[in-house]
Amino acid sequence: MIVIKPKGSTYFSLGIIVVALLAGLILILRDFAYKGSFGLWFYLIAASLITLVLLMLLVKMLAGFRFITAGRDQIIVKLPLRGFQKAYPIAEILAWEEEIVIANKKEFKQLTIAFSDRQSISVSNHEHHAYPDLVNYLVKKAPKKKVKNKKA
């Protein structure tokens, strides 16, 4: 069985950024309440911007928290924060595609799998463990469902 789970280092680094943003938001609001060193417009814009970035990071972290198990001719998707768990037989895969992007001399890969019930999952090599094992599993079990990449 292949178990694909989020990398702890990714969530640790994002968690540090979230804590830093939260500390910055608290400091800005505390400065507004006690000193008022800047104009009202600065506090409105800064607090709104930091809150927006903080919420976007939290949503990304929570939406990406998933566990995928592949083996025995099925793929089991677990989304613990939604309370969702479903086992998909290999026959229910409509298509799968691996996208490879090279940026800053690093290779970023993302695998997208579409199922017959209109659900899809995406897994990347920088955010999840056992990414190459899942790709090899799909190449072996569902080679005809792979989307052929067209080069322009």
TrEMBL record:
Keywords: Membrane, Transmembrane, Transmembrane helix. The chain crosses the membrane at residues 12-29, 41-59. This is PH domain-containing protein.
